[in-house]
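Encode chain A's predicted structure.
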Amino acid sequence: MSTSLRHSARPPADDRPGLEQYRPGRTVTDWDPEDQVFWRSVGRRVATRNLWIAVPALLVAFVVWQVWSVTATNLKDVGFQLSTSQLFWLTAIPGLTGGTARILYTFLGPRIGQRRFTALSTLVLVGPLLWLGLAIQDTSTSYLELAAIAALCGFGGANFSSSLANIGFFFPKREKGSATGINGGLGNLGVSVVQLLTPILITSSALAIGSAQHRADGTPVFLQNAAFVWIPLLVLLAAVSWFGQNDLKAAATPFKRQKVIFRRKHTWLMTWLYVGTFGSFIGFAAALPLLIKTTFPAYSVATYAWMGPALGALARWGGGWIADRLGGARVTLLSFAGMALSIVGVIAFLPSGGDQGSFYGFFACFLAAFLFSGLGNGSTFRQIPVIFRSRHLKGLAEGTPAHDQALKQAETESGAVTGFTAAIAAYGFFFIPAMFANFAVTSAMWGFVAFYLSCLALTWWYYARKGAESPS
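Encoded structure for chain A:
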């Protein structure tokens, strides 16, 4: 029996008891997005509401996560005695804590519920921003204190795993790629928002709380604005999430049913691939402002740095949408091929010996790298539910108890894998700036090219070639 016929026997949503559970702020116990009648009458409206509350909350969380990528570029200008290596480490540290916290958030978020966890994980970010705004006004603040603040800001990046894992449960298979692309892509825009707005905010005395710092030429700036201005918005978004979203009972799965993902080969393969896409996106976004300032100091960080992350974030949305139509593996192949060629182009335009290099060639190739990483971010997240669904349902007839049970387990595992891969990939935020802090830029770039070629080979062999183990 087909899924649509099997589900057509269910009464319309308005005739089922407990319709009040779908209202904002409630826990939903009856959720079946694959039922077309339910989806059209109730499901789409509820899922869309939860998605569009999750997006701005995730965007501002990314702002907190990436605030150091721009803040670090201004510290020496106002009198902080820090080396270039120390500045790169300050941009890298939030990636270390963000990636580690993502592992916890992957399993904790669905367990607690989308509404509760989004509200609480958003509100907790007020603390590190408040500390940052106070500490940055004093140039005698120690490097260790700055590093501690950077570590706490990393928790903003952890919200991604819980948000993506939860939102995926709300949407049917045919729309998961688009939904996660919207959530992840527009959430990723927080990187561009903080890099675009921070240079404007720190020069505004009207927004300042506290004393001004002064650059070498005497220009007053208010670095604390980069932190303080987001605090009221975090409180507002936490409240909106608490009162406007829903906790989805179907997503509240015990860890003992989720931990099986660590025995799945495709968990680790897709983690490797997502490190290549999202790890590159977030790592390059963190490193690019300082990379521009140290490699091409004549060009404005404020003018250019935000463009790459913006392009990558929007491409993620497009990558999910295209993958829903053409297949995720094909788009992922294109992504890694494009990223490898783009970084080869970056290397070609770097200063070398007596050659001053070409900033515009360097920047254009970096924009291409962000574009292809964004497409891959969307396509890999589309691949995960397809892979786990097809492997769990293989050989099972629709409408049977075994099929229904396997489908539920596939949804559980794909949600957990989505969060886990995002957690590990977040370490790209740490390793890419750390590589620039410890190795020559050209050497680091060739390492990235080699990694992308390995990702290209894995995608083709397991997911894209004729006769692949898990076409997706």
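The longest helix spans residues 36-75.
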